[in-house]
Amino acid sequence: MGRTSQTKLAVLGALSVEPMTGYVVRRSISETLGHFWSESFGQIYPALSELESEGAIRRATPGLTSGSTFEITPIGTSMLRRLLSEPFESAPPRNALLLRVFFGRHLGPTACRALLEEALVDAERRKAGFAAIRAEAENETVTDDSPYWAMALDNGERSAQTAIEWLRHSIAVLEDLADRQNQPGL
What we know:
The chain is mainly alpha-helical. It contains 7 helices and 3 strands.
């Protein structure tokens, strides 16, 4: 599935929840899907225009252009289902932290440890953010989307916890390495 199809999938998915303006679609994708999916803002507005010309979405108030609220159409719902059922392509991972750790010999254990400690703070912040989302979700009305959203949230929580465990372990490895390097005769 190409980049444009992925953008359309994200936009149609957002509009399947409720009608939104382009700005709110952009914000929704960033704030909600942003925990596991990033979308270029420069792609969202062209996708809205394309989807409208394809009949997949329509303006809730015809004739308005600026600040229009878009809603998904039956054609859009069919397109969303088709896009969701297509096989997904796993993108090659790009992890800037692991790239630095892999070549960490050139930084040394102290500098690598500082990078990992910074990442640990971030992972703990993400975990706390997911916990706040879960607490908020427990007070919301259950919908047909709720079990699916809960699975995505569970993935975020588990990923953050795994990252925290790995970071703590790796920091301990680097502490041991630094201690061994500081011992005379090694």
